[in-house]
């Protein structure tokens, strides 16, 4: 089995196992609660881009939300590494948006239906004729980010679950782009 498939299988197994809190693992459970909260928030951002953005705006919506999520992380432990990966991904998604931009369409401030999430900056569209190319390029960026996070999980025993959970959310963002 190729190494990346073995890593994914291991992570899936880890996610299926219930956490057992003992005195020795209590601090880990607290970290896992923070990871769970962050992963849930990141997933809500992906869902927000799925429901709030037209296909032309999806790439930049993801870029803005990944950068926004990264800004909420600290500069220590798993948070530092996830922050770096998400920021790098956001910058590369910005470049994809710029490459395929539609200067004739306005940038928009996106809002969730319940106004719970509002984009922190105007979201730039790609040209309708370039949506397929832009989303394919963006999916490649997210795939690389997911791989980076899974590789970090493979080499970081204590924080493997954090990297795996965030990688799973990044993977769900690829599905958003494929449906755009």
Keyword list:
single chain, 180 residues, mainly alpha
Q: How does this structure look, described?
A:
- The structure is a single chain.
- This protein has 180 residues and is an all-alpha fold.
- The chain has one domain (36-179).
- Helix content is 68%, strand content 0%.
- It is built from 6 helices and no strands.
- The protein has helices at residues 3-16, 26-52, 58-71, 77-99, 131-155, 160-179.
- Helix 1 (3-16) packs across helix 6 (160-179) and helix 2 runs parallel beside helix 6 (160-179).
- The two termini are 32 Å apart.
List the helices and strands and how they pair.
Blueprint (H helix, E strand, L loop, with lengths): L2 H14 L9 H27 L5 H14 L5 H23 L31 H25 L4 H20 L1
In short:
This protein is an all-alpha fold and 180 residues long. It has helices at 3-16, 26-52, 58-71, 77-99, 131-155, 160-179.
Overall 3D geometry? Answer: globular
Tell me the distance between the termini. Answer: 32 Å
**What integer value in Å does the Rg equal?**
17 Å
Instruction: Supply the number of helical segments.
Output: 6
- Helical content band: 55-70%
Relative strand content: under 5%
| Low-confidence region ranges | 1-30
Please indicate the count of domains.
1
Average pLDDT, rounded to a whole number, is 82
The class by helix and strand makeup works out as: mainly alpha
The sequence of SSEs as H and E is HHHHHH
Strand tally is 0
Major beta-sheet overview? none
